[in-house]
Amino acid sequence: MDNGAGSTPLTYSDYVFDRLRADIVNGAIAPRAKLAMKDLMARYQVGLSPVREALHRLVGEGFVHTVGQRGFTVPALSLDDLEDLIALRTLVEEAAVRQALERGGDAWEARIVAAFHRLELQIGRFGSADDDGIAQFEVVHRGFHTAMYQGVVSPRLASLQANLFDQAFRYRKTLHREPLLPQEVLREHRHLMEVLLSRDADAAVAVICKHLTLTRASTEHFLAGKD
Question: Terminus-to-terminus CA distance in the chain, angstroms?
């Protein structure tokens, strides 16, 4: 299975892993949904073995739950899990910020500025919060947060940060039910960029930790209404 010109071919297990993970993160497969192997085989047009392997890999990453012999499900969204996720992200992001500031040079700073510029351009053309606009915004939003650490933190730390970012996206999607405030989003990320470029580690940690909690109130309100 080809993954594009010049790239390593995907195995069927990799293919199912990538597709299923994306469908869970993006909400195409809803929280609490049962993940029957027969249904997944039909959805992704593959055999049993790749589906089983992908499911077990996703259990290890926290995107799929399994309980005894009762099969696999998509994790529910809950207030307790949200608080646990924010707490863990705070620890990971603080370590990543300090490592990035210690190791990052001119090229790292340039990548952050370029990523912010792309975010600024996308916010400028955002318009109505339709599905396409939200999807395009999330690509450049993720790109900005990736640029903060790309190439300047340890691979394991970068992988953990990316995993938690995607877990948080499952919660952040609840905010897209309400209109985004483009200028507030832009102001928040400009401040984050500026404090990173200032090289003040303590200030940068304080800003990123506050940034991680910005969606808590709205998400909690949404989840409380679902109970």
Answer: 43
Residues 100, 204 contacting (CB under 8 angstroms): no
The answer to whether 111 and 150 have CB atoms below 8 angstroms apart is yes
Distance CA 24, CA 167 (A): 9
- pLDDT (tens digit, 9 = 90+) per residue, 183-196? 888 999 999 999 99
The percent of the chain in helix, strand and coil, each rounded to the nearest 5, is 70, 0, 30
Q: Give residues with Cβ within 8 angstroms of 140, minimum separation 6.
A: 115, 118, 119, 121, 122
| Contact (Cβ atoms closer than 8 angstroms) between residue 75 and residue 62 | yes
Q: What are 28-54's pLDDT values in tens digits?
A: 999 999 999 999 999 999 999 999 999
The tokens of 13 are what? 């297990």
User: What's the pTM?
Assistant: 0.85
Radius of gyration of the CA atoms of the chain, in A: 19
Max CA pair span of the chain? 53
